[in-house]
Amino acid sequence: MLQIGDVDNATDATTKVLEALRRTFRVEGYEFQIFVSIGIALYPNNREDPETLIKKADAAMYRVKASGKDNFQFASIVDWRNHALTADAH
Questions:
Q1: What φ, ψ does residue 88 adopt, rounded to 5°?
Q2: pTM of the model
Q3: Positions in the chain whose pLDDT score sits under 50
Q4: CA–CA distance, 81 with 71 (Å, rounded to integer)
């Protein structure tokens, strides 16, 4: 896991990653674009063990995918609870 520190640093780092991946790549005459969905959970903000932080980031990533992809979101308690309830229902 990357150690960033705070929301502003995480936002800056993630924005740079998205910008780098949004460029069109050319390989043997073909053009490719990469679209990513990134979920972020911060320690100590979420004050959880690594496994739970990953689950919260995963829930945030799925929220990005549901809203159109190619972006990022931070985990929140509300999203985590909704994701857990949805996962338990399946």
A1: -70, -30
A2: 0.71
A3: 80, 83-90
A4: 21
